């Protein structure tokens, strides 16, 4: 029972690692299909990504029943808890990187956004390179 | 939202231990920001002791305990890096590995890669602590294995400058206080490593149950600190670790950062807090609702810590 419970916890933890990647792919598809959409759409897409990530996070923390008494006394349980904590920290670090990179931006949808700005600048006779650089700095 | 990314490692290479020790010694040569204000302020290292001293009544048995000490330890680490060029990881002391013989721990074995050895062995009784808020509730501890000045390892010649303020005396409930804790009180570093306290309060079982049994931050921090409004006759892993080190300043809650081991102990406190947070990150990013929710009124401390505490803090 204890082992089963721990496996469920780890699987839930694993799903939260995978979900940002799935969400990223979803965002990419949406953005690619609608390359002429405005940045408002990108913001909505970011919001959906965040929601998808949050839903996978409602995991219950492990409890004393998940470990045998000898595991608790020997330090084995603490070692396992540390590994679980590191897995979660990796999720947070990955998500933080994704947010900083424009929330799920991939090479293809970064290119799409660049194209959109080129299009905008050509209509407004703006400085294309300047706007491109500013956009790149944001992502 | 700011996320502090913290990495922990179980073993610090010996070269990195030496670099860390050198950086702490370096900080003990840097000018104090309080120079000229307090006679005890001899170096930037003492500044940390003085800051902790001034904040003691707000940051223990209160909702600020975990986050304040996280920040305090991080600033210390930052000063090691920016003032003294430390490039390694912030080390922590895993209490559970050393419960049977703290003096054989790589942290305290007196080798040149330790933080110094046990104090010189002197015959003494154990401490008799009193519960904050109830001086009639006694918590007797077994005597440790040292008690005298640290004579081995990198900090064998270290000078302690600040305090004491509330240093428990062996065999009684009395405290030793300097009439001028911030004056020039130069003395040796003492330790009284205590396997009896370790076996009772800082085992792997103590740490693991703390993490697993307490589902909200109020209980987690209260049990970690053995807040007497929640538990009696306990020290918690936090207090337990401090009294495994013991001595002067290690056994004085106001000035315990005066022992370099303080920072490894509190890095472990923070590690345990970090593990607990990560196991339910969505719900464990908050501290207790009010910084003062769990704070004792000052007069609860006054009869324990004397007039200095009640008038100056």
Q: Could you characterize the architecture of this molecule?
A:
The complex is a heterodimer of chains A (139) and B (313). The longest helix of chain A is centred in the N-terminal third of the chain and has 32 residues. The N terminus and C terminus of chain A are likely disordered. Chain A is mainly alpha-helical. With 313 residues, chain B is mainly alpha-helical. Chain B has a two-stranded antiparallel ribbon with strand order 1-4. In chain B, helix 7 packs antiparallel against helix 8. Chain B is globular. The chains are: A mainly alpha (139), B mainly alpha (313). Chains A and B meet through helix 3 and helix 4 of A and helix 5 and helix 8 of B.
- Summarize the biggest pleated sheet of chain B: 2 strands, antiparallel
Helix/strand-derived category of chain A reads mainly alpha
Averaging pLDDT over every residue of chain B, what do you get? Answer: 88
Oligomer: heterodimer
Number of helices of chain A: 6
How many helices of chain B? Answer: 9
Overall mean pLDDT of chain A: 54
Helix and strand run of chain A: HHHHHH
Structural class of chain B: mainly alpha
What amount of the residues of chain A lies in strands?
under 5%
**Uncertain stretches of 5 or more adjacent residues of chain B:** 1-10, 290-313
Spatial strand arrangement across the major sheet of chain B: 1-4
Which protein chains make the most extensive interface, counting residues with beta carbons within 8 Å of the other chain's beta carbons? A-B, 27 and 24 residues
Shape of chain A: elongated
Order of helices and strands of chain B: HHHEEEEEEEEHHHHHH
Report the uncertain regions of chain A: 1-58, 108-139
Q: How many DSSP E strands of chain A? A: 0
Question: Over all CA atoms, what is the radius of gyration of chain B?
Answer: 18 Å
